[in-house]
Amino acid sequence: MDLVTRAVAIVPLPLPPNLSFETPEKVVLAFGQFKNVDIGALCYTVRSMERRAIRTGRKVELSSFDSARAKCIQKMIQVANELFLRAGKRPATIYTYFRHFFAFMCWCDESGHADVLLSIEAGRIALRAYVNNLRREIDQHLLSTNTAAAYQDSVRCVLGCYFDEDDFAADANLVVRDQNLTAPTPLPSEADMAATIAWCESLFFGFSDLLIAFRPFPYALKVPPSLGLPKDTLWIFPTQMWHARINRTNLWGVAYDYGLGKIRTVDEVASRFSCLSQAEFAVKNALKVVSAANANPHCLARKSRGSLALRAFLMLFLIVTGVNGAVASEIPWSLELEEQVRHPNCERQGFRSIKWRAHGRTMSFEIGMRYLPHLRKYIELRTFMLNGRTTDLLFFRLPNDPNGDPKPLDVGREVYTFRTEIKRLDPDFLGLMPSQARAAKQAFVQRQTDPVVAAAVMGHSVATALKNYSNGSEADHQDEMNRFFRGVEAAVIEARCEPITVRSVGGCVEPDRPKAIIADPPVPPDCHHGEGCLFCDKFRVHADEIDIRKLLSARYCIRLLAQHERSIEDSERMFGAILRAIDAYIEQIKSVCDAMVERLTHEVEIDGELDSFWSAKFHTLLALGMGA
Predict the structure, then answer these.
(1) What is the CATH number of the domain that holds 451?
(2) How far is the C-alpha of 526 from the C-alpha of 506, rounded, in Å?
(3) In the beta sheet, which residues pair with residue 536?
(4) Is 264 among the domain residues?
C-alpha cells in the first residue's frame, strides 16, 4: 500500500446553517475541544489504522477513493450535525457514537460489506453480520457483553438516523446489556476524602494568595501535616523544578535552598563547582530569576501555580456539589452571578446548567455558607487569571498563548492532571475521581434524608442512585463484615442450655422479633423464611449433630438450586450471600468440633443423609427435574 498524508479540514460541530461540503474526504469532525473523528478518511477504502495526532487526518491510499462512498459521507456529516443539535446528548456521547461507527465501517470494508451505506437493506445485512461478529468475540472472551452492546447500539443509532429508520435492524439478534456486570462507583474512604480536601484547600488558598496578594518568592506554602515537613511548609521557587519534592537539581540549580527557602551564598555552593566564577554565576542567575518573578505579577511561574489553584477549586467544587464533571464544564458565568456571590448578605448561591444526557433538563447545584469564602476567593483568582479576557463559563482552560482566548475544559483531564501534580508532592496520595466525589455526595445526602430525596438532589433516578452510588466504601464493607462475623461467633452455642424455637437452619431465642445482625443485610431477617434467620441477631445454632446437619443440608439444596439459574451472575445474585453466610456459621462451628463437621459433611453430601426438613425439599426439587 502507498499510504500518503492528505489535506484535511477540522470542522467543529454544530455546522453553520446551509453549509455543504464538496470535498467530504477532507472533513475531520470535531466534537468539542479534544475529540474528533476523521470521517473523511472513510471516502477511501484503503486507509491507515495507526494512531494519529488530534488535529490531523489518517494516511490513505489516494487511488482507493470511492465517489459513491463520498456522497454517503456527505450525508453522514449532516447526520452527525443533527444528532449533535437534537439528540439531547452531550458532545462526548455523540463523539463516542461516531468513533464506534468509524470502527464499524473499517470492519465492513474488511468483511465484504463495503456497500453498507448504499441502501437500507445493505445496511441491515451489514449490521446483522457485525452483531454476529460481536457475539463471536464475546464467546471468545475478547469483548465483554456490555462493551459489545455499546458498540452495537452506537452503530445502530447512527445507521438508524442515516436511513431515517426509527427501529433500525430490530430483527437482528442484538446483544443485550447485562446490568449485573456494571460495577457500581466505589465510595471513597473518609481518609481519602479528607486528604483530597486538605490538598485542595492548601493549594487553592496558598497559590491564590501568591498571585492575588502578589507574595514574593521564595514562597512558604502551607501543606497538610501528613507530608511531615518542618512547620508544614513547602518552599516554592519560580523555577521549573518549583519545589523540593520534584527538584532534580542540576549543577546550576544548587543555588536554590529548598529546605530553608533562600538563595544560597557563593561560599555555600563553591564546593560544587570547579571554579569560583561558576559558583558566582549560579548564585547571580538564581537571584536574577527570583527578582524577575517578584517584579512581574503575571510571570509564567505565577500563572503555572495559578492554573494549579484553578484545578484545586474545580476538584473541591465537584466534591462539595456532587455535580457531574460534564455538567461542571458547561456551568455558565455572568457578571450578575458574580455580584450576587460578592454581596455580603449572600448565604447560598445556586448554579444552573443544562445536563445534556438528561435530555436538556435544567439542573441546579448549591454551595452553602461553609464554602462561600472559597467561591469568593475563586472569583478573585478567576479575574486575575483571565487578565482582561472574558468567557461565559465558570470553569475554563487557558491556552499556552498568553493572548489566546479561554477554552472549555475537559474535567476528567483536569482532575487527572491535578492528581498527578499532588502525587509529585505526596507519593502516597490517592485522591478522588469525579465519579467518586459524586458518590460521596450522594451517600452524604442519603444519610441525611432518604434515597428519593438524594436522587432528586443529585439529578438522577432512584434506581441509578441505589445501583451506582449507594454501595458504601471498602472500609464500610470491612466493618460490616467484621460485625457480621462477630454476630456469627455469638450465635454459635456449644450446648443446648436455653429455650430455643426450632428453625430450618437452627433455632431462635425470640420468635417474631427479628432484628438484623448488620445494617442493610443482603437478606432481611424474616421469621417466615429460613434464609432470613442467618442474618438475625436472635438466631442461634448449636455445635451438635442436629444443627450442623441442618446447615449442611440447607447448603446442599441451595447449591442444587443455584446450578439451575440462567447464568453465574444470576446464581450469585440469588444465592451468593446465603451460601457465604452458611459457610461462615459452619467455619465457626468447625473451630469447636472439626471432626464432627467433617463426618457430617460426608454423610450429607456423599451419602445423601439430609435433615428431614431439607430431605423433603430435596425430593421436591427432584420431582421438578432439578436433579444434580
Answers:
(1) 1.10.443
(2) 14
(3) 516
(4) yes
Residue 337 is assigned to a structural domain of this protein: yes
Same domain, 387 and 478: no
* Measured distance CA(611)–CA(153) in Å, rounded: 51
Kindly report, residue by residue over 530-580, the tens digit of the pLDDT: 788 888 888 888 888 999 999 999 999 888 888 777 666 677 778 888 888
Residue 547 CA to residue 543 CA, distance in Å, equals: 7
- Cα gap 286→152, rounded to integer Å: 59
**What residues pair up with 365 in beta bridges, in sequence order?**
351
Please name the helix (run of DSSP H) or strand (run of DSSP E) that holds residue 349, with its range, or none. strand 349-354
The confidence band for 364, taking pLDDT boundaries of 50, 70 and 90, is: low
| 3-state class (DSSP) for residue 244 | helix
400, amino acid identity: N
227/369 same-domain check: no
pLDDT at 349: 57
Question: Are both 92 and 168 inside the same structural domain?
Answer: yes
Backbone angles phi, psi at 12, to 5 degrees: -75, 145
Task: For residue 491, give the nearest of 517, 519, 523 by alpha carbon.
Answer: 517
The three grid cell numbers given for residue 281, joined into one nine-digit string: 554565576
Q: Are residues 201 and 67 in the same domain?
A: no
Give me the long-range contacts of 555-558 (CB less than 8 A, separation at least 24).
Answer: 555/579, 555/582, 555/583, 555/586, 556/604, 556/605, 556/610, 556/614, 556/618, 557/610, 557/614, 557/617, 557/618, 557/621, 558/582
